[in-house]
Amino acid sequence: MIVCIADVLSAEQVAEVRELLAKGSYIDGKQTAGWHARLVKENSQLAAGDVATRASTIVHNALMESAVFQAAVRPRHLRGMLFSRYSGGQTYGSHVDDALMRTGSGTMRSDVSMTVFLSDPENYTGGELVIEGPGGEQTYKLDAGSVITYPSTTLHHVAPVTSGTREVAVSWAQSFVRAPEHREILFDLDTARRSLFQREGKSAEFDQLSKSHANLLRMWAET
User: In 21-37, which positions are buried (b, 16+ CB within 10 angstroms) versus exposed (e)?
Assistant: First the structure.
């Protein structure tokens, strides 16, 4: 399931993060890629330190406060943000994200990958996130402050940035609900019951949907 969520970060939060990024120092992005992904990774990565920690906290908190993000991802563990910058033809070729990732407290499984867009799309050319699948390629270039979440099992790449600068935050989540098809069913049920509640309030039909949603989550959640 691929979910695009608009306005996860407000314009003020985007501006605050970009101000921090302007003060930071950058390293070659290959240093944070796996042994095979580094062969096709051409970008700059914000170096670890106070600036990265502060920027990561802003983005992390905004994601965790988003009801749509919570419903789509069901995050159990969310890795710290990596801030990437692309310009001058830089790209990230086709790759799959590592299945196991180190965190500050151990190791987590990557179930859901995410990209938080920090640059306005009209300010750079190229730079689309391209998700590859059996039905072909799907391209995404969202407004600043928006996020896309997608299964970490997919092959994907970033098209070359031929002008301007593309700034994004990327991260990965281990979900309480491991199977992507189960996450999709729960997301659809949650969307339907919220829509019903907005239209009709707390009705018998809403209660039935809520019961099914809760019981499926209880059945599928890993704790």
Answer: beebeeeebeebbeeeb
Instruction: Please give the backbone phi and psi of residue 209, each rounded to the nearest 5 degrees, phi first.
Output: -65, -40
Residue 85: burial class (beta carbons within 10 Å; 0-12, 13-18, 19+): buried
Mean pLDDT of the 97-123 span: 95
Helix (H, G, I), strand (E, B) or coil at 185: helix
Q: What is the pLDDT of residues 176-223, one digit of tens each?
A: 999 999 999 999 999 999 999 999 999 999 999 999 999 999 999 999
Residue pointed to by tokens 């990209």: 115
Q: What is the DSSP letter of 111?
A: -
φ and ψ at residue 151, rounded to 5 degrees: -60, 135
Measured at the CA of 8, the angle between CA 3 and CA 13, to 5 degrees, comes to 150
